Queue: 4 jobs
Job 1
Amino acid sequence: MKTLFTAIGAGAIALSLFAGPTVPARAAEGASAPPDLDWSFEGFFGTYDRGAAQRGLQVYFEACAGCHSMDLLAYRNLGDLGYDEEEVKAIAAQYFVIDGPDGDGEMFERPALPSDKFVSPYANEQQARLFNNGAYPPDLSLIAKARLHGPDYLAALLTGYEDTPPDGSELMPGMSYNAYFPGHQIAMPQVLYDDGIGYADGTPPTAAQQARDVATFLMWAAEPKLEDRNRMGVKVVLYLIVFAGVMYGVKRRVWAKLH
């Protein structure tokens, strides 16, 4: 009996490992449901497309980092995206952090190191609101797991802007119309445009491509161990299959002797 419960428990663990990102089925009230896109990281054997994630990092730095922080991510984590040590150091060195105190008791500014967290664009929340008409740009570290439909929602939101509301309604001052944002009025202006970013790998930088790439990067940032979890799930399931076969063979031998 104990063996049976152990097998059942292991099976439950395997299913939870394979469950993948939780995606609510219905859209937020007052917003259009985002298109259901195909992602390389979906499914039992999902993996991150490193090329897309690196392009998404570029989109984040060039289009998002001026307003949105990523406080849970350190520059050294970018090694998991395929960057070598020198590339990580070069990326970090483009940003500056306040450190100290020095020998004179003074704080000083220095280039960021791989061990530093991503540098925030603002010193504090009050400064962030001051520069954004009272709106507080959310931290993006876990945004792909914190929003309805995850990456689908992010990709749709970034491409869901329209110059004027299709229903003829009036926008509040400083707001933009977005089909996928609850209430359709969003404080963040459109930031992605066709050819707005130059990709070094030759990928056509359409706004839709940029949106998919940055959504891939943000999904990786929110769940960097997804691939490890999937690999562990495969191992657990294979173990359970072998274990079930062995137990079936033992059962046949035991009952054969009894009869």
Job 2
Amino acid sequence: MLEIKQIRKSFGSNHVLRGIDLAVNEGDVVALLGPSGSGKTTLLRCINFLEKANSGFIRIEDTSTNFAKISGKEKIAMRRKTAMVFQNYALFANKSAGENIMEGLLVSKKMKKDAARAIAEDFLDRVGLKSRFDARPFELSGGQQQRVGIARALALNPKVLLFDEPTSALDPEMVNDILDLIRDVAKSGVTMIIVTHEMQFAYEAASRVVFIDGGEIVEQGSAADVFDHTREERTKQFLQRFRLVRGAEY
């Protein structure tokens, strides 16, 4: 489904990604864990081509490309296979909730307005915001804005859905609602990569956990492998700060 090999990314002398290899199967829910500055968000942005990696290869389904030699046409084709949910929502302030969802359908997929509106209404309904089509972002709570962001990404029908710390900007009482929504999306079979600091969520919801530090993958495996049978000392040091509830539904 998704395979990346030897992705490297530097900002000047700062080497953020140092040769990342990662394979994601269809339907996987992959949680990317690691300290701030470890390269998690940069990796997502490279997969989505919001950042251009310095080198490496990426394949999504039967489409592959070399980051060092990618053309504009190839970049657009690859980007259409993914969709991103941002930590700060990234909604257009001058557009309604529904129009924010429609925008990608109109611009990227070249849909007619009526068709795009019908899809936007459907996905707003799915995230519990059926009545808020005409609401502007400033009229919505943070949790509602993030629901719009998730609806916008899902409406594009991506092969891989990317989440960049989707709860980090939310008030604590809103976090569980968004995590419940993401878990429901995961149950539908959508392939997902989630950068998160919500360890309990990662433990319960992820089919695979990947721990990144210093721009390198330190450890990966099932949630039980990484959390309960940790092999690497660096991973142990990171995880010991978090207390998990084992054996309870989350």
Job 3
Amino acid sequence: MTPAISCEQVQVGYGDLQVLRGVSFDIPVGQGVVLLGANGCGKSTLLRSLNGLEKLQSGRIRIHGDSLHDASRRDLRRIRCSMGYVFQQFNLVPQLSAFQNVLLGAMGRQRFGLLSCLGLTASAEERERAMDCLDRVGMADRALHRPSALSGGQQQRVAIARMLMQAPRVVIADEPVASLDPKAEREVLDLLWRIVREEGLSMLCTLHQLDLARDYADRIIGMKAGRIEIDAPVAEADRDRLDALYIGMARVDAQHDGEAA
């Protein structure tokens, strides 16, 4: 089966700074992968590369078999629409209700753009789907609340509902619980992984909490100074190997393997 995400010897740099140094991995359809690594190790650059926001020096990235390298503008837009995102800071529009924020997830497939997604001209089908997505995350009773009236955990649930509204095939979750307290962390990750599995999606999720990574991931990919140091099923990623990702020359702007970063 064609992988959901495929990276082949991906290299990205800025001037003399080499950030991604031959990164290769495949994520099969239906797998939830946690990406670990210290700040500055190249994780953010990798995530931006996965939707074509970073120009590759060499290598290739494919999303469900579609190459980003030679995609037309129209094809790149289609590929991006197949990828749903969950962010650390939620990225909800503060002036809109939870319901309207979820409707924004449909923008990629709406002819009439923003007005339709604000609910002014949204079809009954899209409005029903938005409420169903809110119900899936336990937020249907908060549909008319603005983000300021919601807790951090509730805001992240709305963001997950917006991602679900998009009907993606691949989910990129970038530190989705970094702004939450320990109880909300578990609740959000329980919800996120359940939805990914129920929908048969594939996910790459960056985390810093090693215990959470080991509890939720099907597989762990660990980066250190722009390279993949660990790529293993969660049962084979022992604590010592994970701790080593954060020790020594972990950043891309430090010396690594005798090479100036």
Job 4
Amino acid sequence: MNSLRAFKTLLRFSFLRLFWSVNTLMVLLPVVGCFLFILRRGFGKMTPPEKAFDAFGTFLIFVFSSFLIPICSLGFGTTALGAEREDQTLVFLLTRPIPRWQILLAKILASLPLSCGIVLTSFAVYCLLVGSIGIKAFLIYWPAMLGMAVAYVALFHLFAVIFRHPTMLALVYALFIELFVGNLPGSIKRLAINYYGRSLIYGLGAVEGLKTPRGFEGIPAAQAYWTLAGISGGCLLATFLLFQWKEYRETP
């Protein structure tokens, strides 16, 4: 009972700490920027509808899924545990009468609703701005957006367990390495989460006329979805195992 009470307290504290942090503001800035871009672009006024759907899909692939989702995920995924390491409070937390796996679970459960919530809420708002085309896009693409967000959060928690300063590494990885690797020819692009997200979006949108660009060799939508689920599960499993046995010290 004491362990459960401590877990709930840590979960509530971690959630509020993330929500009222500067990371929330930094995440909302690009969200508002994309909001203004959609207002200016006028996807809902394009004709014919097929052209509007394809143009909005291109925005979702090259801006929303490639930039905004990684930013929302690393803003909370790396900070949930990484802030404890940077503030040198993790060792103190580990001495409390609560199992390590519960500490990590509380951090993950505190960050997932924020990351996924902002991703899905902003996506829904963007789709409503576009109109009927956007509503159709939301019903088709929301599994892809949610799958990418969860996969990034899981990966960035793994970064936080391994590295002392994970935020900068996650930023470089998400905005540079992933985009570079995901566009390379051959099988090496399968190392990028963004590749599976794009494959899923192109696959889901094909029935509505979304065109796959020449040169992009994607995989079937079902395979991309389950691969994202596998990446999420694998990263979380590795995170729990490493956190259980890794030794942490209060060093700068």
